[in-house]
Amino acid sequence: MITTSEMKALENQAELEGTTKLELMERAGEGIAQEIENTIKNNPGLTKLNKKNRILFVCYHGNNGGDGFTAARYLLDEGFNTKVMFIGNIHKLKFEAQTNFERLLDIEKEESKEIFVKNLPDLKSEIIVDAILGISTTGEIKEPIASTIDWINQKKVFKISIDIPTGISPDTGEENNTHINADLVLTMHDIKPGLIELKKEDKVRIIDIGLN
Questions:
Q1: Does residue 81 sit within a domain?
Q2: How many domains does the chain have?
């Protein structure tokens, strides 16, 4: 088990030892994409999902969103009909997230395919991936995140959260004023204290990103 502060310390130590945060994000995205593929293959309710059906990533401008951009790219490479809804501020993207955001933009331009979509109410998908806040969840959930969470929760689709469902404290499990009701959580490196109850329900998978 690992807390938020311990996780950040591990990432900083890895960087000091030569593994960049961009590389860690690449590993996370690849692992997330692989686990989503495995989930589709092994979940009886999703076995009819084929590569023509839509996987929608909902991303914010932090590192959780960056992991989402990266995973979306891997799924696109595998031929899955993958879309991304960006609800953050493009000017607040940090280097790692911005790099992977721009990689998706390049694919969209080079292959003349729509990847980024805008209108939530009109979007149809079979899997929605919550790449909004993750372990950065602190304080009251505000707009535009609050209404986006409500929209996601209303959809009768399979919901996957990256690291921890947005709106749940990673260190305590305390539920905020609103939070994602995830069917599955893909968390990096080790279980977070806030995921204990979801782990009991077998709703947590750990993604190895090579941290010691």
A1: yes
A2: 1
